[in-house]
Amino acid sequence: TMSSPKASEYGSQASPLRQPATPNEITKVTILGAAGGIGQPLALLLMLHSEYVQHLALYDLVHVRGIAADLSHVDRQCKVTAHLGPDELTEAVRDAKVIVIPAGLAQKPGMSRDDLFGSNAKIMYNLAKVCAQVNPSAHLAIISNPVNSLVPLTCEVYQRILGAGSRKEKSADSNSALSQPAAPPASPGAAAPAGSSAQKSAGKQQQQQQCFHDCCRRIFGVTTLDVVRASTLSAKSAFFKPEPNGLFKDPAKIAIPVVGGHAGKTIIPLLSQSTMKVDKKRLIEEKATTLTLIESIQQAGIEVLNAKKGAGSATLAMAYSACRFTISLLRAQQGEPNIIECAYVRHQQPLVSDLEYFAAPLVLSKDGYVKTQGFSLNKLLPYEQQMIEEGAKELRMSVAKGEDFAKEQL
Ligand code: NAI
How high is the ipTM of this complex? Predict the structure, then answer.
């Protein structure tokens, strides 16, 4: 059932000015691609959350020592370290609780996110390999585009490196493997249960499936910017009355699940599921207004690209969104309940036809996401369902592209 999350359940409401709690251990967050347009403001924002982050590790191929020196003067109880080039990557990711990845090329006007695949797949592949080898239990927040392909690519890399078996073995016994309830992480390569060799191999397959899922529960494609845009653009739309002082409604009070993926038509804001009541009749009757709003959310990235005239893509609202997502991961890791964020992840049981990868509202925990927050197709308006069907076609191709790339390398 679709119980819409309350606004207070959505994202980080933590104040950056909260007093630091004395931590039992130092929480390390790593940014891969820290010198970029997103990486730099993200590092600054994370530093302001020193009650959650006490060590910020900045990795890039360029400029990162200067950026770390600069940031290290901010008066927060947070250590900043610089890691320059591949030789220093292992040290950067070791012991991090969250690894945020905005490494790679960004769009230029006229480019689609998919146009970045050629360069960014290779970058992501190399980074993912080191993360899986050095620190497989860290939570990964993948910002680099195309998110729709790079998350499946990364899951494939983790699956191979952590010995979770091949995809072929999976389809042989997919039903029983998929119907297993979530179990605590199985250690890769652990002994198969005793019994006949057939039982043994079935057991091993199940274990591999579970192991694969446990890896993937920690690998997130960051779609928070789409959620943030959905809140803000809706708050400013005709569907919400302005405040008495003329200002638009507080977007933080309007949580709108955004499902599907992170590119064009795969970005599907579910206005009917807003936490602040929208008149569903109006959403249907004023369909033109609704579709204009949806399109403005989907095209918001392009609007920024064009306005910046080649000087970059969205970086500031993105850094804000990535910070919120990272803090939510950390809060969930520390055992705070009811932390919900939308993200693009692999699902053990597909939410939409046979699509394994799909963005949805997720309940986060210390071991990655636990479940979706009541996403149910049949509660949606007809045109929302239609958008999901359309988006699914594109997603299916993007997923295959990422998986195929990883398989060719391995
Ligand atoms: P940028 O070009 O300003 O920064 C990218 C950084 O990555 C640079 O500092 C570069 O040196 C670094 N880099 C390149 N190869 C690397 C490697 N192998 N290892 C480590 N660092 C490496 O780009 P920007 O604006 O920061 O965007 C980064 C990515 O985020 C792009 O792929 C962009 O498309 C994506 N993005 C995703 C969004 C989302 O909602 N998920 C929104 C906006 C951008």
Answer: 0.99
